[in-house]
Amino acid sequence: MTARTASAATALYDLPGPAARRRHRLYGVVSTALILAAVGWVVYLLLHTGQFSGAKWTPFAYVGIQELLLRGLGNTLKAFAYAAVLSLALGAVLAVGRLSDHRAVRWVSTLLVEFFRAMPVLVMIFFVFVALKAQPLTALVTGLTLYNGSVLAEVFRTGINSVDRGQREAAYALGMRKTQVTTYVLAPQAVRAMLPTIISQLVVALKDTSLGYLITYEEFLHAGKLIASNLDYDLPFIPVVMVISPIYIGMCMLLSWFATWVARQERRSPKTTAVEVAPAEPGTVLPGVR
């Protein structure tokens, strides 16, 4: 490594010396030991309280319990699918409104975005369920859509505004209208920057579907609550948590993996691949040119 390369590599971060590396190794060993001790203590408590006893895990061997969990998981995914699609659509509409050239449209869109972002999700769900007497699924999806749609509206607006100003000016110079500029020039470039934030917000929507059990919507958490409270098996609450939590975590990780896959496909897309330009060669002389 040359002196110039080393200087560039350490411009913002000084390479640790021997003493600093020893301290870092010591910190790593101590941190690992503390984490292992905490995990061991939790496992000990679970064993000491009999959470792995056969009586507490017996309910999960019954077909009826398995069907109850699968039905709850299906209802959770259904509510999430509706909320995700509607939130993306609402976010796009509100973002377009906030980017509109008409002042009244901008003000109305801004008011809606700020109101629904500030309103707690649970309050909106209860309002639709109690005041409007909607079905549990409708109330849950409506609350999730209004909140996550308003957040995504800001994500879309910020993403479009983050595209280099030269892209916008060049498109206008070609005679494109504002709708065409946004649709064909700004939005495709902004999506790549917005994708991680969009997926993160969809993960929030997925986790918030668990609020449905408060309005008796039979989702995954509601199914686990029924198993833990209505069966005469010494209230297997911890085993239910140990079954439900990894599934929720797995679904969130699957969404993150999907975002990574989509980003990778975007990078491999022929539309985003650099095109090789042939070197200039002598061509036919234009008429009248000597």
Short description:
The protein has 11 helices and no strands. The protein has helices at residues 3-9, 18-48, 54-57, 63-98, 103-118, 121-131, 136-161, 165-173, 178-208, 220-230, 237-268. It is flat.
The share of residues in helices is over 70%
Shape: flat
| Proportion of strand residues | under 5%
Q: Count the strands?
A: 0
User: What Rg is obtained from the alpha carbons, in whole angstroms?
Assistant: 27 Å
Report, as a whole number of angstroms, the end-to-end distance: 53 Å
Average pLDDT rating:
82
**What's the helix-strand series?**
HHHHHHHHHHH
Indicate the structural class: mainly alpha
Spans of at least 5 consecutive residues with low confidence: 3-10
- The helix count comes to 11
Main sheet overview: none
Structure description:
The chain has about 290 residues and is an all-alpha fold. The chain has eleven helices and no strands. α9 packs antiparallel against α11 (about 235-270). The longest helix has about 35 residues, at about 65-100.
What descriptors fit this protein?
11 helices, 290 residues, single chain, mainly alpha, disordered N terminus, flat
Q: Secondary-structure blueprint of this entry?
A:
Layout: H1 3-9, H2 18-48, H3 54-57, H4 63-98, H5 103-118, H6 121-131, H7 136-161, H8 165-173, H9 178-208, H10 220-230, H11 237-268
Helix pairs in contact: 4-5, 4-7, 4-10, 5-7, 6-7, 7-9, 8-9, 9-11, 10-11
